[in-house]
């Protein structure tokens, strides 16, 4: 089935806009393929170093270039719940490779930081740029030119986008992404949010808060809310970089291990040494990225991907824009209600039919490109399935259920929760911004109120504790962009503004920073660009100026006479405290080189 005309029209304009850069990219990976992605180009000394620790039989096979060698890029560490399961994956992959007649080696590790640990802390200012560091670290691992294909072990916020950038940079190699899965469900997300608000109001202590948080984040796997980490897993599946049904199977289960072994064997089957050579740079094209954006809207996914998807696409010579993302939002209905867009978690979503159900619904409605190439072969239809464990311990797949297992969590297209995806571009005399409306009630999507201006989230928190945040207002938090301080998430504001909104005040946020992938019920115009440090209009807003945020009309305006606003001097801020400490001094070059948020906030230009 072909995609609907409006979906195809957006895809075609991306294709036309990207033609020159995409042609250059494809030419480069074609040249890389032609130079041979194998050991034949290495000298004997090079090769001896590359297989020094291999067994004698593996050395013979690699030396004669008779078998495919699979490179493993891993984000394993044992501090972070989402990445701890990867400890055992390399051995599983090596065993599976041997069974398939190949060899696997760990090519390198990449850093994996957790925004949940660094929220509100100085380390958060490294978070966005860690994506580019991850891409570079993976490139170093693959630069040895020992590999015929690669598998990428990653889950969370910046890790998967960084790995995708690396995979597409090495686009002549086949690539399969292998997830670890979500942790089992803990206390309900709304209960966790309730305790957070009580703590912020001084109505419970730290012991009670820590107990609630620990019951929510309690074991191996991703956090179970639908933030950036789980949005990543959805993207990898709907873009065809996972094997079908792999995303949301819990770690430490026989099915998870079977999926990991299967993915390794699949990657080996795609090398140039076989008959199904599938270089990832050709496999992933404009249609793949449109499918990813459609999935983001249908699930009410993370706002962070309005930055990451642009950077990922650029790595493949594809020029994706905020306007493309916004226009697709108008065409794609919301089919999932997973916290913060609902009360359920990603395990409930998976149990209700999950991605297999959703992909089938979107395909049948013409909202996805079915005629794409994936790591599984031709077409996206094979992803409309549910993966299960067969009697022989292998993965078997059944058609996704015909009906949702829980209509409050997962809906068919004809009974969608809302007709649009809920990510929208705002434009006006304050620049451009992104807003996520899927968790915001319709009556709160338009607000006109005086500005309260701060240069840090701590400033707003201090004002809250001092009882100064009275009446209706729009909080303007500036000097939070990529060049200012690395564009940290400002997730700590969610609780404070949520309390005020629950008290009956009409409040909103406008910032050149980011919010969490779990952006919630308070209207927030985020990623404002140009940022304040680049003399963006947000730097000219004064306390008391009337600001109008209209998520329905897609506008963001300060209601000041145009002539007066144009000649106002831009505010300045002392950002010296953001230049040092917890490694921030090492990222000065990244801050200087960073592109705008709507260009991917990338140090690669």
From TrEMBL:
<protein>
    <recommendedName>
        <fullName>Phosphogluconate dehydratase</fullName>
        <ecNumber>4.2.1.12</ecNumber>
    </recommendedName>
</protein>
<dbReference type="InterPro" id="IPR037237">
    <property type="entry name" value="IlvD/EDD_N"/>
</dbReference>
<dbReference type="InterPro" id="IPR000581">
    <property type="entry name" value="ILV_EDD_N"/>
</dbReference>
<feature type="domain" description="Dihydroxy-acid/6-phosphogluconate dehydratase C-terminal">
    <location>
        <begin position="408"/>
        <end position="601"/>
    </location>
</feature>
<dbReference type="InterPro" id="IPR020558">
    <property type="entry name" value="DiOHA_6PGluconate_deHydtase_CS"/>
</dbReference>
<dbReference type="GO" id="GO:0004456">
    <property type="term" value="F:phosphogluconate dehydratase activity"/>
</dbReference>
<keyword id="KW-0411">Iron-sulfur</keyword>
<keyword id="KW-0119">Carbohydrate metabolism</keyword>
<dbReference type="Pfam" id="PF00920">
    <property type="entry name" value="ILVD_EDD_N"/>
</dbReference>
<dbReference type="GO" id="GO:0005829">
    <property type="term" value="C:cytosol"/>
</dbReference>
<dbReference type="Pfam" id="PF24877">
    <property type="entry name" value="ILV_EDD_C"/>
</dbReference>
<comment type="function">
    <text>Catalyzes the dehydration of 6-phospho-D-gluconate to 2-dehydro-3-deoxy-6-phospho-D-gluconate.</text>
</comment>
<comment type="similarity">
    <text>Belongs to the IlvD/Edd family.</text>
</comment>
<dbReference type="GO" id="GO:0051539">
    <property type="term" value="F:4 iron, 4 sulfur cluster binding"/>
</dbReference>
<keyword id="KW-0004">4Fe-4S</keyword>
<dbReference type="GO" id="GO:0046872">
    <property type="term" value="F:metal ion binding"/>
</dbReference>
<dbReference type="InterPro" id="IPR056740">
    <property type="entry name" value="ILV_EDD_C"/>
</dbReference>
<keyword id="KW-0456">Lyase</keyword>
<comment type="pathway">
    <text>Carbohydrate metabolism; Entner-Doudoroff pathway.</text>
</comment>
<feature type="binding site">
    <location>
        <position position="156"/>
    </location>
    <ligand>
        <name>[4Fe-4S] cluster</name>
    </ligand>
</feature>
<feature type="domain" description="Dihydroxy-acid/6-phosphogluconate dehydratase N-terminal">
    <location>
        <begin position="68"/>
        <end position="380"/>
    </location>
</feature>
<dbReference type="GO" id="GO:0009255">
    <property type="term" value="P:Entner-Doudoroff pathway through 6-phosphogluconate"/>
</dbReference>
<keyword id="KW-0311">Gluconate utilization</keyword>
<dbReference type="InterPro" id="IPR042096">
    <property type="entry name" value="Dihydro-acid_dehy_C"/>
</dbReference>
<dbReference type="InterPro" id="IPR004786">
    <property type="entry name" value="6-phosphgluc_deHydtase"/>
</dbReference>
<feature type="binding site">
    <location>
        <position position="223"/>
    </location>
    <ligand>
        <name>[4Fe-4S] cluster</name>
    </ligand>
</feature>
<keyword id="KW-0408">Iron</keyword>
<keyword id="KW-0479">Metal-binding</keyword>
<dbReference type="GO" id="GO:0019521">
    <property type="term" value="P:D-gluconate metabolic process"/>
</dbReference>
């Amino acid at each position: 089935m072909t995609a609907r005309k409006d979906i195809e029209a957006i895809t075609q304009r991306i294709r036309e806009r990207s033609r020159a850069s995409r042609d250059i990219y494809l030419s480069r990976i074609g040249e890389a393929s032609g130079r041979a992605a194998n050991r034949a180009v290495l000298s004997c000394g090079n090769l001896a170093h590359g297989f020094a620790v291999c067994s004698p039989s593996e050395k013979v096979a690699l030396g004669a270039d008779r078998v495919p060698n699979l490179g493993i890029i891993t984000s394993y560490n044992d501090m972070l719940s989402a990445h701890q399961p990867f400890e055992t994956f390399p051995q599983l992959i090596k065993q599976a490779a041997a069974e398939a007649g190949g060899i696997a080696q760990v090519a390198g590790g990449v850093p994996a930081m957790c925004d949940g640990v660094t929220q509100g802390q100085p380390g958060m200012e490294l978070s966005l740029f860690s994506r580019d560091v991850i891409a570079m670290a993976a490139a170093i691992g693959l630069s040895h030119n020992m590999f015929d294909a690669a598998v990428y072990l990653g889950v969370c916020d910046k890790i998967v986008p960084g790995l995708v950038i690396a995979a597409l940079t090495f686009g002549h190699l086949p690539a399969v992404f292998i997830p670890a899965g979500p942790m089992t469900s803990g206390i309900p997300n709304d209960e966790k949010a309730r305790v957070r608000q009580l703590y912020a109001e001084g109505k419970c202590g730290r012991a009670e808060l820590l107990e609630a948080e620990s019951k929510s984040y309690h074991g191996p796997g991703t956090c179970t809310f639908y933030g950036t980490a789980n949005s990543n897993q959805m993207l990898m599946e709907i873009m065809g970089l996972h094997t079908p049904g792999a995303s949301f199977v819990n770690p430490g289960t026989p099915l998870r291990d079977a999926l990991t072994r299967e993915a390794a064997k699949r990657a080996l089957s795609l090398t140039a040494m076989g008959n199904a050579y599938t270089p990832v740079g050709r496999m992933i094209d404009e249609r793949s990225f449109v499918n990813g954006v459609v999935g983001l809207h249908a699930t009410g996914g993370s706002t962070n991907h309005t930055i990451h998807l642009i950077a990922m696409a650029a790595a493949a010579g594809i020029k994706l824009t905020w306007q493309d993302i916004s226009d697709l939002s108008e065409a794609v209905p919301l089919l999932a209600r997973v916290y913060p867009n609902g009360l359920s978690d990603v395990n409930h979503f998976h149990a209700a039919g999950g991605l297999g159900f959703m992909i089938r619904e979107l395909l049948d409605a013409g909202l996805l490109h079915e005629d794409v190439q994936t790591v599984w072969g031709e077409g996206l239809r094979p992803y409309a399935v549910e993966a299960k464990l067969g009697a022989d311990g292998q993965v078997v797949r059944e058609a996704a259920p015909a009906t949702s297992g829980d209509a409050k969590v997962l809906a068919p297209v004809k009974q969608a929760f809302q007709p649009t995806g809920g990510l929208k571009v705002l434009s006006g005399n304050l620049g451009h911004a992104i807003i996520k409306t899927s968790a915001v009630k319709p009556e709160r999507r338009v607000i006109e109120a005086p500005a309260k201006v701060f240069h840090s989230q701590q400033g707003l928190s201090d004002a809250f504790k001092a009882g100064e945040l009275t009446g209706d207002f729009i909080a303007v938090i500036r000097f939070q962009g990529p060049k200012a301080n690395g564009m940290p998430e400002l997730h700590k504001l969610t609780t404070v503004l949520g309390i005020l909104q629950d008290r009956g005040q009409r409040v909103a946020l406008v910032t050149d920073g980011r919010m969490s992938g779990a952006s919630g019920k308070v209207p927030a115009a985020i990623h404002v660009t140009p940022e304040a440090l680049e003399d963006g209009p947000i730097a000219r807003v004064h306390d008391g100026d009337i600001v109008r945020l209209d998520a329905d009309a897609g506008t963001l305006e300060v209601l000041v006479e145009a002539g007066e606003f144009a000649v106002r001097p831009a505010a300045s801020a002392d950002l010296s405290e953001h230049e040092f400490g917890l490694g921030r001094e090492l990222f000065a070059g990244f801050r200087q080189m960073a592109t705008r948020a709507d260009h991917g906030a990338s140090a690669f230009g």
